[in-house]
Amino acid sequence: MINAADAIRIIVNSVCSLGSVTTALDRSLGMVLAEDIVSEDDVPPFDNAAMDGYAVRTDNIREVPVILSVVEEIAAGFTATRSLQPGEAMSIMTGAKIVQGCDAVVQLEWTESLDDGQVKILRTISAGHNIRRAGTDIAKGVKVFTKGQALRPQEIGVLASLGRRFVEVYRSPSVAILTTGSEVVELHQQLSEGKIRNSNAHVLAALVKKIGAEPRYLGIAKDDRHDLTSKITEGLKEDVLITSGGISVGKYDLVLEVFRELGVDIKFWKINIRPGMPLLFGLYETKPVFGLPGNPVSTMVTFLQFVQPALLRLMGHTSDRQVGIRARLEEEIIKKDGKRHYVRGIVESRDGSLVVHTTGPQVSNILTSLSKANCLIIIPEEREIVRAGEEVEIELL
Ligand code: AMP
Ligand code: MG
User: Fold this and answer.
1) Which of 344, 341, 349 is nearest to 371 (CA)?
2) For the chain, which terminus, N or C, has the lower number of CB atoms within 10 Å?
3) Is residue 144 part of a domain?
4) Does 9 share its domain with 61?
5) Are strands 184-185 and 196-197 parallel, antiparallel or unpaired?
């Protein structure tokens, strides 16, 4: 049985990013740039006022208070009709273009409007005050983003300010999701004797969507060779196939056999972890195939640990792990099985540091325990007792 670290290495080394596509900016959230972005414009494009106030010539306001005549108003989106002359001011709004001759803007709060078309300037300011210069956010010709940059809302904003309606990104994988189990029924079906509702399909689809990949749900396959073969064959047409259930050693756990028959090259089956031990990873041609265990907690935990890194890599992400977070454990955890444990935990901030406790008994069919949890506590293979007060690694959920 292989360890989690080796399993992740095998998975990540088996996949690389899919090809690139041109996509509309507003569909690019969560995707990864497949091109460098060089600015073709200055942002902002012109010098403009940082506050509402009066455009002045600072050599006119060395001695204050001083009275200037207000000769024009410049609203945002408009420009002055002439330049600013000595003894003059123009009323100016935030974002409006600075008029020629003006070298500073006095904010409204430091002025007093007089009713005869004049303004009293109450404070002196230096040149450049309240002026946002062209190109101070992004200068023309600068490389703003490098290929491989993940697009969050703020990157989308930067691309919009550069006028990029379309961007080149790595294609998102289509992810086939197949649930297996003769006991599993869909939500719209009657829950008859011996049957349970299909929660895994919904969890998996949500997990796939959450990172910006595209789930394609294939339904439920019975624990039957024929049904499994036809549905898995369908699933192997997508970029990635994920199955849940039927991967353990029970008499009707047939997924491994069917994968083999269909030509999936099995890279490993069973990992030295808990929960989720019977995880399978293989390749069909170059496509990753994951057989996840059916217990709902195992399904979600193994997806997060092993499937998600693969999907992120296919999407062009270069870093797929969370920044290491450590918290002080508030209770003792004992385990003697030599496995890496992912313990459902609740982390909170107390007196300026992070403390974490478990959600209680860690059985792998209790899905509500994952709902109570806001993190997974990682207990490495070799640890047998972790005492209260020790620091542990956590991953936020
Ligand atoms: P298996 O991995 O097929 O042995 O299933 C392990 C446990 O998970 C069994 O109790 C199954 O009934 C349950 N299970 C399997 N598939 C699902 C599913 N799609 N939704 C909820 N529970 C499931
Ligand atoms: Mg089963």
Assistant:
1) 344
2) N
3) no
4) no
5) parallel
Residues with CB under 5 A from ligand 2 (ion): 181, 245-246, 294
Q: Residue 140: inside a domain, yes or no?
A: no
Quote the CA–CA distance of 75 and 85 in Å, as a whole number: 19
For the whole model, what pTM was predicted? 0.91
With tokens 């080149």, the residue in question is 168
Q: Is residue 268 part of a domain?
A: yes
Q: Which atom of ligand 1 is nearest to the CA of 183?
A: 12
Q: How far is ligand 2, taken at its centre, from the CA of residue 206, in Å? A: 21
Report the Cα 112 to chain-centroid distance in Å: 49
Alpha helices in 277-392 (DSSP H): 296-302, 308-314, 367-372
73 CB neighbour count, 10 Å cutoff: 12
Place of tokens 């217990």: 295
Q: Give, as one character, the DSSP assignment of residue 108.
A: G
Q: State pLDDT tens for residues 343-386.
A: 999 999 999 999 999 999 888 788 899 999 999 999 999 999 99
Domain CATH code at residue 288? 3.40.980.10
The secondary structure of residue 287, as a DSSP letter, is: E
